[in-house]
Amino acid sequence: TVNKVVENLDGKARVYDIVIPLGSGITFPDNLQGQIQSGNQKEAVKNIQAKLSEKVKAVEIYDSLMEHRDEYIYFRTDHHWTALGAWYAYEDFCEAKGIAPEPLEGYETVEFDNFLGSFYFNDTDECEELGGTPDVITAYLPKMDAIMHIEDANGVKYDSKVIYDESNAAASLKYSCFIAGDNPYTEIVNNELTDGSSCLVVKESFGNCFIPFLVDHYQTIHVVDYRYWTGSVSEMAAEKGVQDVIFIN
Description:
Helix content: 10-25%
Shape: globular
Order of helices and strands: HEHEHHEHHEEEEEEHE
Largest sheet: 8 strands, mixed
Strand content: 15-25%
Number of strands: 10
Radius of gyration: 18 Å
């Protein structure tokens, strides 16, 4: 799919591909790897990237995450990475694109505590030990003013903030603070940029906490979640006139 898009958009837009390793390949203890049914994440990423066209800009993030594996870059009770993990990937994306990343210490942050995710609810039958150590979600607010226009799975359109206040949400729903969760189509407009810069992000839920870091670099960000959106990525990219297409999953 990525190779087909890069061929269709040859000379029209750059295509980036970001493959996110699972927490089992980064933060899970090395001496316990043999006890879980998990392949080698680094080899998996290499195998995927080996199939990519040379015209695709493959963004390498595995080594960066491994360098910071002792930090809070994946949740304990959930399968997603944290926004800190996504920021390290954003750094690598900026390097591949040839732009300067916004420094981490310059962001205003908000925290949502008592987050219990998929490992707790779905995979461990609400394990008491996990329930006693809930996660804390730290979200980094874009530095520029932006608004999101969303079309949900029912076709309902509404506006929202890039980082939504989920303080009072149920424990399992707090990850939806990032770009209002998973929707077929989202458009993010930076109200402070007028340079016509734009990108199309093709993602699933791992992309949700990565996308806010892009807001300060593009006037318009188009986001599709390929699990719920139907259409042609190439046609949308051409129609919207984007300069970059970013696959992240």
